[in-house]
Amino acid sequence: MADTQSVTDGVLDILEDVLEIPRADLEAHPTLRDHENWDSMGALEILSQVEGRFGVQLDLREFNAAKTVDELASAVSAGIK
Coiled-coil region(s) at which residues (predicted)? Predict the structure, then answer.
């Protein structure tokens, strides 16, 4: 199982890339939907990249329930076996 910090770092890497938002902004404002670049297409791209990078399959409801970077990282961590 991956440690929490490495999962969070990986999730931040993906968010930074897909949303085109600097990591510092994501860390300062961790609520995902507060970012103007967050939309349904970006969310699906993030889901796809998270699943591919970490080898997990997240339930769409679980993914959508994650409101913050930490909640998304926790969902990913829970899915890693």
Answer: none
Residue-wise pLDDT tens digits, 33-55: 999 899 999 999 999 999 999 99
Integer angstrom CA distances of residue 9 from 6, 23, 55, 74: 5, 10, 16, 12
Tokens representing residue 13 in the block:
């890497």
Under a CB-based contact definition with an 8 Å cutoff, are residues 79 and 57 in contact? Answer: yes
**Tokens 């993906």, residue located:** 14
> Whole-model pTM?
0.92
Structure tokens at 61: 């409801």
